[in-house]
Specification:
Elements: H1 3-23, H2 28-52, H3 57-83, H4 89-120
Helix pairs in contact: 1-2, 1-4, 2-3, 3-4
Amino acid sequence: MDAKEFKRRTMDFGCAIIDLVEEMPPKPASAVLGKQLLRSATSVGANYRAACRAKSPSDFIYKLGLVEEEIDESAYWLELIDRKCLAKPALLKPLLREADEITAMTVASINTARLRKGSKG
């Protein structure tokens, strides 16, 4: 997958999270968890865009590490929302699957970048 496609996927993920949070019931727990999820999920794409503008291989790896942290945090909030039945499973399951896929692709990119950096150094 190229950078353009990954940017699109992370943007789509953020948009889908916004839709999910707007569907959650008006409860105090939904408000808190929704806010946490919005922050982490929307920062996935923002941090990936920053990684694409990295100034060095080390900077790229560092910024992809932020993407990994944010997508993992997003998965945590999605799992918590699921466990507490604060959103419809039909809405949550595809988002959890996408979070897992984005995580796997990010980790693979970090590993590849580390290998490339090591072979140059």
